[in-house]
Amino acid sequence: MGETRVFADGYRGVFQNQEDFLKCLNSIGRNSFWERKTSKNLRLVAITSGSKVEEELKQMYADEGLDEDIITDTIINTGLLLKIRNQYYPVRDCAIKSILDRAGISGAGLRRVEKSVYARILNDCLKVAKGDALLRISEGKVSAVLGGDCHDYAVLDMEERENGAYGSNMAAAGAMETAQQAETFGENGLTGLDDNALGGILQSLEAFKG
Question: Are 82 and 57 in contact (CB under 8 A)?
Fold first, then answer.
């Protein structure tokens, strides 16, 4: 059975109609926000099961009405937290690439080292990173760490208004239309799409899922 909790790194959703798909995106949007931070102040921290930081974060999440399993899922998957001053944010797997971009580092070898070593390497690079970072916090996790300078990304209003403003609903509707045109919309979800159609839908999902 696929993961159905939207905060989970392994989340997968199958929608029987466009309305349900849009409701899901809108729900995620309501539980998401953007923050702009100085890149050189970002730090990664490894988190392990049974650690003091796990206990403290689970208590904090419980106090704030968030699901404690967000922390458990993070430990199972990335095993990393993003620390900004005295705040800790669990890192979703889809955020890793953008964090590496902010640190100005890449390489397959990074995946093979221990999480604590991985965090230390990236932190050394982040200390000298330039500019601002634009963080997407979605469903209790960091889902992206984008360039935050004026020439990089801009935060747009993703609500579709009655005045016809474009937003997440329009992008989601376009993705659903693509699925319908491919005649794969229904009990099988997105199964059977060609690479171009599936790529367009996944890009829209990732953008608004975080």
Answer: no
- Over 157-193, what HEC string results? CCCCCCCCCCCHHHHHHHHHHHHHHCCCCCCCCCCCC
Q: Which residue has the tokens 């798909």?
A: 21
Token code pair at residue 53:
């930081």
Q: Say what the pTM is.
A: 0.72
Q: CA-CA distance, 130 to 127, in Å (whole number)?
A: 9
Q: What is the pLDDT of residues 122-179, one digit of tens each?
A: 999 999 999 999 999 999 999 999 998 877 877 766 554 333 444 444 444 444 443 4
DSSP at 9: T
At 111 the three-state DSSP class reads: helix
**Residue 40 in contact with residue 128, Cβ under 8 Å?**
yes
Handedness of CA 139, 77, 96, 202 (dihedral sign): negative
- Token pair of 79 as six digits: 């095993």
Sheet with 32-38, side-by-side order of all strands = 32-38, 132-138, 141-147
CB 145 within 8 A of CB 42: yes
